[in-house]
Amino acid sequence: MAPVAETELGRQEAEAACAREPIHIPGSIQAHGHLLAFDAAGLALTHASADAGLVIGQDVTDAFGLPAARLLPAPMAALLRDRLPASAPGVPVGLGTLPMTDGAVVEAIGHRSTCGHLIVEFELPGAADEMETQDRGVRDAFARLGRTASTTELSATAAAALRAISGFDRVLIYRFEENWDGVVVGEDGNGRLPSYLGLRFPATDIPAQARRLYEANPLRLIADEAAPAVPIRAGRQGPPLDLSFSALRSVSPVHLDYMRNMGTASSMSVSILRGDGRLWGLACCHHAGPRRVPPATREDCDLVARMFAARVVASEEMEHAQARGRLKGLEGRLIARMTASERMDDGLVAVPTDLLEMAGATGAAVLAGGECKLVGRTPAEGDVRRIADWLAQQDSRDVVETECLSASMPGAEAMAETASGILAISISNLHPNFVIWFRPEVVSTVTWGGQPAKTVDADTGRLGPRRSFAIWAEAVRLRSARWTPAEIDTARDLRGGIISIVLRAAEERAELTGRLERVNRELAAFSYTVSHDLRAPFRHITGFAALLKEQEGAALSERGRRYVGTIAEAAETAGRLVDALLNFSQMGRSSMVPVQFDPAMLVAEVQRALETEIAGRPIDWRIAPMSAMQADPVMMRQVFQNLLSNAVKYTRGRDPAVIEVSARIEGGEFVCTVRDNGVGFDMAYVHKLFGVFQRLHRAEEFEGVGIGLANVQRIVERHGGRIWAEGALGQGAAFHFALPMRGIPAGKAG
Fold this sequence. Notes:
single chain, alpha+beta, Beta-Lactamase, Heat Shock Protein 90, six-stranded antiparallel sheet, elongated
């Protein structure tokens, strides 16, 4: 059956099938040992390898259901009864030796499985002189590993020690990458098998369920790939025997094909585990011919692997700690600058080299408060904002790192020169604010141990291993240098610092806002009281001045009558000012009743109210159609009243005066504009327009008290909107206000 190259879909389906292969329940063991399984509750025999009669001295079919005490020597049965049930699952327990019916003596090692069985495996022990040589090899390995520091030297030393102890032709130290690809970082061999040092192997060579078994059972011997497997027989119908912790477990046919293609007849793997039990890598031992390694030798190899794991993990942690210490200083300087700056983002970019060096980046961006600040080599601002939009859609936004942005974000290939890789932190829990570091594309060549693609049999659909392990080079593009754990951890800590600064600033703003609100309420109450109490005295002054002029005018001199007129005029002006101030103070106290209405109707009402003021002046009204708006119509009438009244007033002398009113929907807002061709104003003083009692023209030229636009601003802001103006001297003015289409924000309506 000739294999054919699979399509991408076929490959994925085949690999998924491979990943589901139940390799922990193969139903057979390897031929160099024997196996018995007893029920943990009653110690009755439930399973046995087909040739285990050599161990118990009778046919296994007749032995099913018999207690261990009738099948094993009394001391061994006692250990099985007393020690195995109390041991942790998978922990091997030596049970002694046993002579078989063929005269050979085997060593018995038992363990407790997770499925309610006590499993005993029997293997031939090693020779005494071999054990002594191996003990010396272990002591030498411990001494040499203790004197070595770098990962490269440690890997080479461990490979040499394991080969000396086990006698295999070649030993590889195989480290797993983050994506579970494997890289050979250390090797020792005698030349019978080719060198794989520095080569990379795809994650599919060791699928996920195999990696789980390597974590659970760190020793794995395949003594002879050509030897037929020995089936396991069961005394009664039931689920297959779980051999996850078995040393004799038979091998997947795919793995046997893999070994044949590699040119190895036997192999042994020893797991290299981190302190938390996760796989760092494997020590892979290969032999050109069959090779049986006794249990004691395997235990020695496991000791060396544990020593290597402790040393290499400690070395990596030391490198990580040193890098973290260096980057922590940069982080501290960044946080200090942010704390001292009025704006957090200004502090971050104040010294660009610190921001870039903290992540080993060539460019960085800070997006906060709608602004985008760029330092170093970065994509264009529009592309950076696209990246931020993509980050905002990710499930986990706190820290995002990738060395290949194009693999996740559509269209990122075009940014490869500046942003093949990104490291990003979210600096707000409410808004899409980020700090993003960028790294450019680094074109590299990965040398694989054979083309990584597997094949699928055309007839059976069965996934087969790679047939060639000849060196195969692949050019890798659209990838940056990898972000180190130290850089990622420092970025995460910086995020925590930024969030703390933002929260502290928010608390300070909230406290200040509360104080300002109290002061504003007090000022509003004061202005209301003062303006209300002043209305009556000013009316009295106006009234009595009029009576004095009417009843006593004949007795007054011309100068006296002029004085009385000035008093009356000043009192009227002061009264209007007080009325305006009272209206202004009430504007912040009155309730709002937002409804949907046609603003064109309000504009028409205001036009009619202004007819007496216009008094026949030529005015060209240009009122554009307007869509409905959601607001308080009483307050909005005051807005249009003030804006249109100002337009009429400041176009006095124009022939004709042109007053335009238009509205549009833009960016989720209702935007209205009142434009005229009047006297205009100097934009240098635009900041004064909406202040109370602020005037840009002399009172002698244009009447008014200077409070109308302040009222307009207060009304618009109470609706959650904004107002601004544009103008030029002698060329007219335009006033714009924008209200949110969603209506009045919570808290504004009361």
